[in-house]
Write a structure and sequence with these properties.
Radius of gyration: 22 Å
Number of helices: 17
Structural class: alpha+beta
Mean pLDDT: 95
Number of strands: 18
Shape: globular
Strand content: 15-25%
Distance between the termini: 20 Å
Low-confidence stretches: none
């Protein structure tokens, strides 16, 4: 197996549990890819990529692999989101009644009722999406599940419109208050495309998932998930090799495939699963046509990790604000403006932010009296116009701190250390080409059976013996594990047929 990201580790666990001999080769010295946590400063554990886990908690993978026995403990993120707006603070709880009460207090009875209807409409659609995400996106599977959705989720034309409508338009049609529309639009934007893009309404609809199961934050950092997966994998007798990159993949000849490593070893196997970025898989197998055909995009955003002596003190106090994702966004207009800066190849002048403060609930991450704070900002292009990120890093970092200060005055004066991860840094450290944390653009031409490319979408590839999984593949980026489990099932089935 190529790569020890969390999807690859999930796949390896299921393959090894089935009795197959599994070896994972990882170029990095840290396992987990973007689901990893490192000691960024002495005694301070900081996530390298993701921090809050949403989708994997719906898959049952952690329970199936009994990862709690290996130290994985989730702290619920409740409320899941807070907009600490002085004029209209919103507390978005997993409890639907509590969320509607908060919306009514700040935005009025109309928007509270509209939100309840919104969740009622999107809950069956999101259950359908979880179902579809659990299997390879074949035409027959998608067709059967699509018919099932149409039968139980309303008029077919309304369902189809709901899936292709822009999130911005859908939210404007439902809600009056622009601050509520901004918060939900900002949540919808986390997969990459802006809320005014066609096909983004389902991204806003994922809010329904947060009422089905609370998001979680692994105690000890996001990387605890990957560490538990690795420990389970080793318990099944598999091997993980770090610090030794794969430099080539040989498609199957007869019954054997192989990988060649930087250390000069050739490892033969019955199948190779590339759990890395799909363009790396194409490059390693020598498929330049496929490599060029994948639409990666030009970044999504950037993040600044901060060690501070205080938590952000917002102008308005909302219960649970420091447990939640803090959605610092003024309105839909701010989202459009930030995306306009992105299209011009510029850093956002007034960036909307998501701030996360894990040490408010997890004291294991930093010494007493210190806090880890993550500041995520979209959109920031990988390629700047007339500049480069190595020279712009600190200036943009200053701008992000200034943006936090506008919501929480004086926060920057308590910053002890900071680590700025630009799109270039995400590419260098985590192998996220183009700075795209989703690997591949999450738009209509790269979803379901089109992700990452036709012919590569069911975890099989046109190259005999080579399979793929990870954020590049269905169902997409984020902390899922679903593609790893599905890819393992495909490989087991194919190897069984070959026997």
């Amino acid at each position: 197996m190529v790569g020890a990201g969390h999807n690859g580790l999930v796949a390896a666990c299921y393959l090894a549990r089935a009795g197959l001999d599994v070896e994972v080769v990882e170029a990095d010295t840290v396992i987990g890819g973007a689901v990893s946590t490192v000691e960024r400063w002495p005694g301070v554990r900081v996530d390298r990529g993701s921090s809050i886990h949403v989708m994997v908690r719906h898959t049952g993978i952690a329970e199936d692999l009994r990862l709690d026995e290996l130290g994985l403990v989730y702290d619920d993120v409740e409320p899941w989101g807070v907009l600490p707006h002085p004029d209209a603070p919103l507390r978005l709880s997993s409890d639907l009644d509590a969320t509607c009460a908060s919306i009514e207090a700040s935005c009025g009875a109309h928007d509270a009722a509209a939100y309840r209807d919104f969740i009622a409409e999107w809950t069956p659609r999101m259950r359908w999406f979880l179902d579809v995400a659990s299997r390879p996106p074949t035409a027959s599977w998608l067709g059967r599940r699509g018919v099932s959705l149409m039968r139980r989720a309303g008029k077919p034309a309304d369902v189809v419109r709901g899936f292709v409508e822009p999130a911005e338009a859908m939210l404007a049609r439902r809600f009056d208050d622009e601050r509520l529309r901004g918060a939900l639009g900002w949540w919808a934007a986390q997969s990459g495309p802006p809320p005014h893009a066609v096909g983004t309404a389902p991204m806003a609809g994922t809010a329904a998932l947060l009422h089905l199961k609370r998001p979680g934050r692994p105690r000890g950092g996001s990387g605890r998930l990957s560490e538990a997966l690795a420990a389970r994998l080793v318990s099944y007798g598999a091997t993980i090799r770090t610090g030794d990159a794969v430099t080539g993949i040989e498609p199957r000849t007869g019954s054997v495939s192989a990988v060649v490593t930087r250390s000069g070893e050739r490892i033969a196997s019955r199948a190779v699963l590339a759990a890395c970025h799909v363009t790396d898989a194409a490059r390693l197998v020598g498929d330049d046509v496929a490599r060029r055909a994948v639409r990666i995009g030009d970044g999504i955003g950037m993040v600044m990790r901060v060690l501070a002596d205080r938590l952000p003190a917002y102008r308005v106090d909302v219960p649970g604000v420091h447990t939640a994702m803090q959605l610092l966004v003024e309105s839909p207009d701010q989202l459009r403006a930030a995306y306009g800066d992105f299209l011009r190849g510029e850093a956002s002048r007034e960036p909307p932010l998501i701030v996360m403060t894990p040490t408010a609930d997890d004291p294991t991450l930093a010494p007493a009296g210190k806090h880890v704070v993550s500041v995520w900002a979209q959109w920031h292009p990988r390629h700047l116009r007339g500049a480069d990120w190595d020279s712009e890093r600190e200036r943009v970092g200053d701008a992000l701190l200034a943006a936090v200060d506008r919501w929480a005055p004086g926060f920057s004066s308590g910053v002890v250390q900071r680590f700025v991860q630009t799109p270039l840094d995400l590419e260098r450290e985590l192998g996220l080409h183009g700075g795209n944390v989703m690997h591949v653009e999450t738009e209509l031409d790269s979803l379901f059976g089109l992700r990452p490319l036709p012919g590569w979408s069911t975890y099989r590839t046109p190259h005999a013996g080579l399979y793929v999984c990870g954020a590049s593949t269905h169902p997409g980026g984020g902390v899922w594990g679903a593609s790893g489990r599905s890819a393992a099932a495909v490989i087991r089935r194919d190897l069984g047929r070959r026997r």
